[in-house]
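Review this:
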Amino acid sequence: MELIPAACPSALCSLRCTVLSSGASTCVSDPITPPAVECPSDFTWNPTVSLCYNVIEAPMLWQDCKTHCEALGARLAILDTPAKLDVLLSDYNAGSLFSVQYFIGASYNNITSDWRWVDGLAIDPWFLTSYPVTGSSGVCLNYEDTEKWPDAKTMCTGYGARLAILDTAAKLSSVLDDYNASLLNNTEYHIGAQYVYGIGWQWVDGTAVDPTFLSNYGITNVSGDCLVWTYASLVIQDKCDASEKFLCDISV
């Protein structure tokens, strides 16, 4: 979270005049440097990158983080340069940050199909290519521990999320991009679909899995099976009581 500098409505200046020997005077306009942003005592000020920020350790969903920061008169931090990112890394290395991951003020915009900061500005493509960032259709993924499918479903729900509904080739490929970028350490993850006897394949939100989707990946009707994302073929089926890491998502 960072404090937002107040907008300056107009340039401030003062007149500096000199009286000449002829009696005439000449004046020039000197700009007045506006005062620096006043950084509250419970925030940290870094003058090198002009960043006034505070770290919130309480776990929240991204949207809740954004709302919380705005309620404090701040914003979810826009860390739009390597220098600003390095400030946080230095704090982490110094033991000032207790977690290894923090939300910052950017999200993928499905309408414009690009990444944007919370102030509405598009993120520089160069910035994105410098880090393993890819766009995905409104999916926020969380990578968790090894569990059986029912336990994984319960844990995702406890996070305010759901066992991931990867119901398109694009979403499946987005996870593959993360795997290829070494953001995922396992080759298989539980996702949010199971075969329900007498009903068929269902996603965790109660909707039926598209039969075309199932046939594209060679999924058959076997009671007690659940869907698994895999790097080799994107989707396979396995027993729901098999222990796997799992993917949670938040529909945004």
Observations:
- The longest strand covers residues 188-196.
- Helices lie at 62-71, 82-93, 125-129, 149-158, 169-180, 211-216.
- Residues 6-14, 139-144 have pLDDT under 50 and may be disordered.
